[in-house]
Amino acid sequence: MSKYLLVVDFQPGVCEAPMSQWQPDEITAHMDYYRLLHDELVASGELVQSEVLTGPELAAVVTSDGRGSTVVTDGPFQEFKEWLAGFQVVEVETRARALEIAARLSAVPGPGGVAIQQPIQVREVMEQAPRDTGAMDDWLQTVGDGS
Amino acid sequence: MPDDVEDLLRELSPQVLGTLGRRYGDFDAAEDAVQEALLAAATHWPRDGVPERPRGWLLQTAERRLVDQWRSEQSRRRREQETAVRDGPAPDVPDQDDTLVVLFLCCHPALTSASAIALTLRAVGGLTTAEIAKAFLVPESTMAQRISRAKRTVQDSGEPFALPSPAQRPTRLRQVLQVLYLIYNEGYTSSSGPALNRTDLADEAIRLARLVHHQLPDDPEVTGLLALMLLTDARRAARTDAAGELVPLAAQERSRWNHPRIAEGVALLDSAIGSGSVGEYQLQAAIAALHDRAPDAAATDWPQILALYGLLERITSSPVVTLNRAVAMAMVDGPASGLAVLDDLGDRVTGHRVDVVRAHLLEMAGDRAGAATHFDAAARRTSNLPEQHYLTQQAARLRSSPTD
């Protein structure tokens, strides 16, 4: 089992229209799709965490020299589409399964029920321990038996 | 809760579950009922004292919960089982230890290894869902869902509450051993920080392996696995330094090894090896024993280790074993021979481990720049955090002092 972070940002995919210009029932269908997928991942015991983030207006950037001089500013001033919108952490048996879940996220419906094909970034989370016997044998070599 | 009460509860837990399971055939419901009975005992026993017949107490309490549970469901829908319960006392079940039966069910082939691990820790290990979730760094709700799905899968498989048939038993036992070894792995590498409580898992895996060994004392691979765990675990204290960083075997302070544990592992191994069939756990344990018995790294019996890896390679046909043999070969015959084994391997092994081994062998051969490059490559590709630190340090060490 490995944990994967699935990153959702504001890249539009094939749908350029912002959500405020969609039909109300299109927004409902969009949200329902996410909710069903969420429930499915909860039921399968694969969902570790799922969060949606507030927008740029509430964001801050902090810098510090470690001696009490801390500066808090607005920002970062990146392009809107690069803002992190939310993320899920799933723990799954294989990498293929993580990619499959990411594909489901990407296929969320937009206007006209068309999948918006938003790009989803998939990142594996670092482990503290080997995850199977093969990795365990490798590990014994690194830490121990062979080197 | 006092340790002795906890030990007793965890020993009795799978026995009570086994008896209930056999009586009513409902693994899922029986497991829930046993968990509730364990919680009740954990509350009452430290206060009121351990009852005279603790197993009977647990069984009765769990059985009452089970019947209550069915009664409450009765109002919603009819169940076949409740008829059986209402119709009078269940057929008398002989008083036997069903721990092994429960363990075989928990390591059911229909389960993924992660599910089997979680279910084993709860149903056989007597750990709570919260404890298991904490050990695997996932929310309790995630783990609860995983366990209840696993139980349903076992239930739906229709497998009876009995030991697998003699024909199936060797395959099923291998699965049990693999699950125990994986539980051990989870605890093995933890030192401090977020994974602190995982060390408990190594202890738990050893406890469970002892339990299986107690029931199947003549199975050489069961003995081999227990020996392997003990012989590896004996080095636990020396495996990390004060800062929590990994210390490779050759640099470990051998006085910090657990020598009684080594003696126990070696004795177990000797009894298994003498008994005939040789399997992979025994061979791995034999290799671990050779390391453990060397008074210092230079005294390690590498020719013998090389021979054992050769045997292991034949049994498992695993390219990972071949990688290990390359290292042993280098120790016996020099780095060029080890690198030749690696070259023969071609692309049968992918992943960072090839780079780790190549880096070690190149360093032995005096190619520090080449070694650093491969340590870097390995560090970029491992998904294991302590190992990444170790590999990055190795690359930095080789670059910072070009000549020793």
UniProtKB/TrEMBL annotation, chain A:
| Top-level taxon | Bacteria
- Read off the Pfam families from this record: YCII
- The residue ranges of the YCII-related domain are 25-108
State the family it belongs to: Belongs to the YciI family.
- The name this protein carries in UniProt is YciI family protein
**What organism, scientifically named, is this protein from?**
Angustibacter luteus
The organism that produces this protein has a lineage beginning with: Bacteria, Bacillati, Actinomycetota, Actinomycetes, Kineosporiales
UniProtKB/TrEMBL annotation, chain B:
What SUPFAM superfamilies does the entry give?
Sigma2 domain of RNA polymerase sigma factors, Sigma3 and sigma4 domains of RNA polymerase sigma factors
Q: Where is the RNA polymerase sigma factor 70 region 4 type domain?
A: 104-153
Q: Where is the composition biased (Basic and acidic residues)?
A: 71-85
Q: Which residues form the RNA polymerase sigma-70 region domain?
A: 8-75
Domain of life assignment: Bacteria
InterPro entries xref list: DUF6596, RNA_pol_sigma70_r2, RNA_pol_sigma70_r4_t2, RNA_pol_sigma_r2, RNA_pol_sigma_r3/r4-like, WH-like_DNA-bd_sf
Name the chain's protein: RNA polymerase sigma factor
Record lineage: Bacteria, Bacillati, Actinomycetota, Actinomycetes, Kineosporiales
